[in-house]
Write a structure and sequence with these properties.
Elements lengths: L2 E7 L2 H16 L6 E7 L6 H10 L7 E2 L7 H19 L3 E5 L3 H12 L4 E4 L11 H11 L3 E4 L2 H9 L6 E3 L3 H13 L9 E4 L3 H4 L2 H12 L5 E4 L2 H8 L2 H9 L3 E4 L4 H10 L2 E4 L2 H9 L4 E3 L7 H5 L3 E3 L4 H11 L16 H18 L3
Parallel strand pairs: 1-2, 1-4, 2-3, 4-5, 5-6, 6-7, 8-9, 8-11, 9-10, 11-12, 12-13
Helix pairs in contact: 1-2, 1-7, 1-16, 3-4, 4-5, 7-13
Bound molecules: uridine-diphosphate-N-acetylglucosamine (UD1).
Uridine-diphosphate-N-acetylglucosamine (UD1) binds next to α1, α5 and α10.
């Protein structure tokens, strides 16, 4: 009998990761070994945060949509689990596949675990060591209860080892790198730095403190360079709560606030930008892959390799410091970055890892 995998996604970065998996599943003809069904929790639900990725990346429509939407975090996770449980019971998959570090990741992993279904975690082993981030809790807990842990970097493998996690851990490379390499090639994108910075802000450590958010917008405005800022809905909601900030932003001629953009539009902006200013995990990595200097407005990052390589700088939200950080990085960008995130075969490695695990189950008569 053919084995079954149930994949749980729900937030924007997971649709991107799913894009790489879906393609590798088709191209590697893995359907001969196991079926792959998709659950969308509905954590992200706007057209620009969800549908645009399904159409742009040609993702198959979700087999199940939980329509959970925006709720306080505990309620959001609980509601997802409540809806996932009967579904996992009726589908009875051999494995539940989760991605990254969002509330959908934790809800998927935990529901599977309490129902004795093994879990595979794509993007395992990342740590920012910042316990204020909900994502850090989600990562640690998900890794603890996963059977198969696919690490995007060698650092992630070592971090898991330091926590005593070795069994089931493997280095796969990064599935987001797979997708970027492919799409850049098919879009025939080449790096043509223009005069603007690309910025994104949505981490709760930046958005939830009004003073911090104000200083970020002030810094972006004072850069004396055009900044394009596709704004996450949660950030927009916080900005709207602060009328003074809202009106200042809209009066700034250099700061262009855009709605959230599609994956392909983001790549086009990235390749045309002179630098990235962000707090996103994914964009730090995409900047590295695209050979674009990146300033991260956080005190820490889980993508430490990009900082060690001198291509990403952690910085306070201050225009002068941001400018200096970009100037310091300048020399690095004459050479190409090391392939820290694999050569574009990560999704294939993940699926092969799952297949091997299933063969082993078979041989044990399970
Ligand atoms: C989530 C993830 C984060 C990931 C990010 C990418 C968690 C804890 N965080 O953060 O790891 O990097 O997604 O985008 O899971 N909203 C909308 N429309 C949408 C989605 C969200 O308006 O389609 C607004 C709502 O006001 C919502 C808020 O954004 O309350 C926050 O959404 P939430 O799902 O809690 O997490 P994100 O901040 O998006």
């Amino acid at each position: 009998m053919k084995r079954k995998v149930l994949a749980v996604v729900g937030a924007r970065p997971q649709f991107v990761k799913a894009g790489a998996l879906v393609r590798a599943y088709r191209e590697g003809r893995f359907s001969r070994f196991f079926s792959l069904k998709w659950v969308h929790t509905g954590q992200h639900y706007d057209y620009q945060m969800s549908d645009v990725f399904y159409s742009g990346l040609k993702l198959p429509a979700a087999d199940y949509h939980l329509n959970v939407g925006s709720l306080p975090p505990a309620e959001q996770i609980a509601r997802m689990m409540q809806k996932l449980e009967p579904l996992m019971k009726s589908e009875a998959p051999d494995l539940v596949l989760v991605f990254g570090d969002t509330n959908s990741t934790l809800a998927g992993a935990l529901t599977a675990k309490v129902n004795r279904i093994p879990v595979a975690h794509v993007e395992a082993g990342l740590r920012s060591f910042d316990s204020r981030m909900p994502e850090e809790t989600n990562r640690i807990l998900t890794d603890r209860i996963s059977e198969l842990l696919f690490c995007p970097t060698k650092t992630a493998v070592s971090l898991l080892k330091a926590e005593g996690l070795v069994q089931g851990v493997s280095w796969s490379g990064d599935v987001m790198a797979d997708l970027l390499y492919r799409e850049v090639q098919s879009m025939k994108l080449v790096r043509k730095p223009s005069s603007f910075y690309l910025a994104t802000i949505h981490r709760n450590t930046n958005t939830d403190c009004p003073m911090r958010l104000e200083s970020i917008f002030e810094a972006l405005r004072d850069l004396n360079a055009p900044v394009k800022l596709p704004l996450h809905p949660r950030t927009l909601a916080f900005v709207k709560k602060n009328p003074r900030l809202y009106s200042r932003i809209h009066r700034s001629s250099e700061l262009a606030i855009l709605p959230p953009v599609s994956y392909h539009d983001l790549l086009s902006l990235l390749y045309a930008s002179k630098g990235v200013i962000t707090d996103s995990g994914g964009l730090q990595k995409e900047a590295y892959l695209a050979n674009v200097p990146c300033v991260t407005l956080r005190d820490n990052t889980e993508w430490t390799e990009t900082v060690a390589a001198g291509r990403n700088v952690l910085c306070h939200p201050d225009a002068m410091k941001i400018r200096k950080a970009f100037a310091r990085m300048e020399k690095r960008f004459r050479s190409k970055p090391e392939p820290l995130f694999g050569q574009g075969k990560a999704a294939h490695k993940v699926l092969s890892g799952i297949k091997t695990w299933m063969v082993r189950l078979e041989s044990k008569g399970l």
